Amino acid sequence: MASLTSLPHLQQFVSQSSYSSSSIRHLSPSKTHRVTIQSPRRSRLGKLSLVPRSALDEVPVVDPPPPLSPSSSGDKSELISSLKLKLLSAVSGLNRGLAANKDDLEKADSAAKEIEDVGGLVDLSVDLDKLQGRWKLIYSSAFSSRTLGGSRPGPPTGRLLPITLGQVFQRIDVLSKDFDNIVELQLGVPWPLSPVEVTATLAHKFELIGSAKIKITFEKTTVKTTGSLSQLPPLELPQIPDALRRASNRGSGEFEVTYLDEDTRITRGDRGELRVFVIS
Hints:
This is Plastid lipid-associated protein/fibrillin conserved domain-containing protein. By secondary structure, the chain is of the alpha+beta class. The chain has four helices and 13 strands.
């Protein structure tokens, strides 16, 4: 325990004082403590010494600072990081949602809602630049329907049509308003031929229709072979006339960005589809 004699300015004050005793008040942010010093007395060597009345009460006590508020930026950042790990754990092993069952869907939705609640409302009029880049899809609740179209009509996966889904990306350019869905596919062919690998790019334009809502409008689909057939030129697929399209597949859609930071994005579609992306 520190002695009062270790405080030079206090020792000098006592030495020069003509009073038999003095009281020093120490002010802390919330409490005031009184420290009492006995009158100086002379030792055998003729030097002044200070004898504290109580070794415990002699040291001024400063109250500890209050704990950080739960809403402080440091605590919030740590909580978000923890919740993001929880979400990644909930969707891992689900093959982007193709292998998800009902319990998996509920766990992923609950984990996403926790992040959305802590993160608060997204304002793309301020944070639009955070959309910029290439995002990798790690989970879509609509893929549990076992079709590549998600909640919309699309080719099924399985033995009837041997299509294997690879990685799925979204490439967003906030300046040109380009919004491309990029899907890697593996097409089965008769034995002994090797599967054909292709990358399909579904080009869209996007616009903000709210503080956090985005509308995308389809423009074209381009298919490019990869792997051993990468030397082939890309092929632009013809569009289906609007008159022949289903009302539910007009080439446009809307979704809301419910969470967004530098490396993670959560969206909810106009049909309740939950999607989770990480920056690629």
